């Protein structure tokens, strides 16, 4: 869907009002030309002077209407932009995690910055486009009134001009697309620049290689393609201006050969066509912005973040006082585009109960985190089904299902503010947990906010655990939480905290490599190359990871 169509869908009334004002401005501009033409072809100066009030009236009307319509369009622009930006963020919040992961953070960042900036700049040219189109339409109506057959000839010449710029414009569009793809690669390099700062600074040769062989060529490619497209639009814009002169030449020197037309009509035509150069130039100059917005919309669609899609439907309910969660024939496949490699997890069949402590073990890359993402509803299974007390989890109730979980994944994010945790006594509870986690001297909780998150990785993970406890959800998922904790906190985690959660009737699902603690589990699940190798009901036994 084009940006114009989307804007129209989202804010019909303001756009119709703005368009009407634009059309009125264009009509008054055209009327101004008509009065000018009449004055120029008046027989006497006295006749010309009688047209002065009309001329001044239309000139003032154009001035006032231009200001009002621009202001109206500019306020519509801000409303539309805010709406589009918030919609895009909401789409990202709702988008399937697997889709966001396969796009990668660099493409998402490019979408949030580049595409939104392009859409913003396009919205800002829309007022001008509407006024140019309206002026063009008004002038064409006046030309039709002057001479119908002549207008047909002029329209035929304009059609040829349009066709002659269509091919380079299409090429320019493909270059815009290429430029946008290069921008994705550039954002990927920006991420390497930030995330890999340590590794790059510690190895000068690597840093130079990265700069010269990766970052610089990508930045140069963006600049090269931008230059090509800009040059193309300069050429087509100037060509359009030249063709206006060609149209005037056809009027003055071509038309009299084939048709008997009064010289005054020809002069009026030449004047109007000359006047038309301004809106035509305007349209030509705004064409690149419209093309770029089309590319931006296509990129957003490709990421599954189309702004044209309807808002996701309200979520269906899931039993919150459930007894069991079942995974029935669940599968998930990753496909890596770069080398065509695939990894399939499942089919997985297992059942877990409230008050159960389940450990998931297995070697690196066996699929443990993937299974946790499926269990939590972050991934929707390709095949099979999740059930809560027999109620299937589908697209209609997946969001509610996710609210059963509290998790600390291996690559967790720590929120400074305790978002979504507006509950009485929160700070007191938090203080209690902080001292259990031996963080009371490092971190305070004030006004629902952690005083700092600039801590060691192990301490940050303890803070993530604190947030998770405060969430007080029926199911807990921990993905190798203890991996970077010292022995004291491992003991605390496995021997005190997990049993405490279990005793509160929570279902606790723990991904672990700590075979010293496997015997504490009520049930041990083992994954090997994406397959569960332990039977769902096997009694716990120590299994080497
Ligand atoms: N986003 C992804 N795209 C493609 N392949 C992926 C993706 N995430 C994981 N994989 C692949 O899927 C397999 C399982 O990954 P997963 O992270 O579930 O394993 P894991 O058992 O948790 O490993 P570890 O113990 O190292 O954390 C791996 O071979 C991995 O390369």
Automatic annotation (TrEMBL):
Q: Name one Pfam family in it.
A: ABC_membrane
Q: How does it sit in the membrane?
A: Multi-pass membrane protein
- List the InterPro entries hit by this protein, alphabetically: AAA+_ATPase, ABC1_TM_dom, ABC1_TM_sf, ABC_transporter-like_ATP-bd, ABC_transporter-like_CS, Cyc_pep_transpt_SyrD/YojI, P-loop_NTPase, Type_1_exporter
Q: Molecular function terms in GO for this entry?
A: ABC-type oligopeptide transporter activity; ATP binding; ATP hydrolysis activity; peptide transmembrane transporter activity
Entry-linked PROSITE patterns = ABC_TM1F, ABC_TRANSPORTER_1, ABC_TRANSPORTER_2
**Transmembrane residue ranges:** 12-36, 48-68, 125-145, 151-173, 232-252
The places in or outside the cell where this protein is found are: Cell membrane
Q: Which residues form the signal peptide?
A: none
Taking every annotated instance into account, which residue ranges of this chain make up the domain ABC transporter?
325-545
Q: Which UniProt keywords apply?
A: ATP-binding, Membrane, Nucleotide-binding, Transmembrane, Transmembrane helix
CC terms in the record's Gene Ontology section: plasma membrane
Q: Where is the ABC transmembrane type-1 domain?
A: 15-292
Top-level lineage group: Bacteria
Which PANTHER family does this entry report, sorted A to Z?
ATP-BINDING CASSETTE SUB-FAMILY B MEMBER 10, MITOCHONDRIAL, ATP-DEPENDENT PERMEASE MDL1, MITOCHONDRIAL
Protein name per UniProt? Cyclic peptide export ABC transporter
**Native species of this protein?**
Myxococcus llanfairpwllgwyngyllgogerychwyrndrobwllllantysiliogogogochensis
Taxonomic lineage? Bacteria, Pseudomonadati, Myxococcota, Myxococcia, Myxococcales
């Amino acid at each position: 869907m084009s940006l114009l169509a989307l804007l129209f869908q989202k804010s019909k009334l303001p756009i119709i009002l703005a368009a009407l004002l634009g059309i009125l401005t264009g009509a008054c501009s055209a009327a101004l030309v008509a009065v000018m033409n009449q004055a120029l072809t008046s027989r006497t100066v006295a006749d010309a002077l009688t047209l002065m009030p009309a001329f001044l009236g239309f000139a003032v009307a154009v001035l006032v209407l231009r200001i009002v319509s621009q202001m109206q369009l500019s306020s519509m622009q801000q409303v539309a932009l805010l709406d589009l930006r918030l919609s895009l963020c909401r789409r990202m919040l709702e988008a399937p995690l697997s889709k966001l992961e396969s796009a990668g953070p660099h493409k998402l960042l490019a979408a949030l910055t580049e595409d939104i900036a392009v859409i913003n700049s396009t919205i800002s040219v829309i007022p001008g486009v509407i006024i140019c189109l309206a002026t063009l339409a008004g002038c064409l109506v006046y030309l039709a009134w002057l001479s119908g057959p002549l207008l047909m000839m002029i329209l035929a010449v304009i059609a040829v001009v349009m066709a002659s710029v269509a091919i380079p414009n299409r090429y320019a569009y493909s270059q815009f697309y290429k430029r946008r793809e290069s921008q994705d690669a550039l954002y990927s390099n920006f991420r390497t620049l930030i995330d890999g700062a340590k590794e790059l600074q510690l190895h000068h040769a690597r840093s130079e290689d990265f700069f010269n062989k990766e970052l610089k060529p990508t930045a140069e490619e963006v600049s090269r393609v931008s230059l090509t497209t800009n040059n193309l639009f300069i050429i087509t814009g100037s060509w359009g201006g030249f063709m206006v002169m060609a149209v005037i030449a056809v009027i003055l020197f071509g038309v009299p050969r084939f048709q008997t037309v009064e010289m005054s009509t020809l002069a009026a035509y030449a004047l109007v066509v000359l006047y038309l150069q301004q809106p035509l130039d305007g349209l030509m100059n705004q064409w690149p912005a419209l093309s770029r917005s089309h590319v931006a919309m296509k990129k957003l669609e490709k990421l599954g973040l189309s702004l044209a899609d309807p808002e996701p439907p309200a979520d269906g309910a899931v039993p919150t006082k459930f007894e069991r969660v079942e995974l029935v024939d669940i599968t998930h496949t990753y496909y890596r585009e770069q080398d065509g490699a695939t990894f399939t997890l499942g089919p997985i069949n297992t059942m877990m109960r409230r008050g159960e402590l389940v450990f998931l073990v297995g070697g690196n890359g066996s699929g443990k985190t993937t299974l946790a993402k499926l269990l939590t509803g972050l991934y929707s299974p390709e095949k099979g089904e999740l059930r809560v007390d027999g109620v299937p989890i589908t697209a209609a109730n997946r969001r509610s299902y996710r609210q059963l979980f509290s998790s600390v994944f291996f690559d967790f994010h720590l929120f400074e503010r305790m978002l979504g945790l507006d509950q009485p006594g929160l700070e007191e509870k938090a203080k209690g947990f902080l001292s259990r986690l031996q963080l009371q001297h490092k971190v305070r909780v004030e006004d629902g906010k952690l005083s700092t998150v600039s801590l060691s990785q192990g301490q940050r993970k303890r803070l993530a655990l604190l947030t998770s406890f405060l969430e007080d959800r029926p199911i807990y998922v921990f993905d190798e939480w203890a991996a970077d904790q010292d022995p004291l906190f491992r003991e605390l985690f496995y021997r005190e905290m997990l049993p405490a959660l279990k005793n509160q009737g929570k279902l606790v699902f723990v991904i672990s490599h700590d075979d010293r603690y496997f015997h504490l589990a009520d049930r041990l699940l083992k994954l090997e190359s994406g397959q569960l190798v332990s039977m769902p009901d096997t009694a716990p036994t120590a299994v080497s990871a």
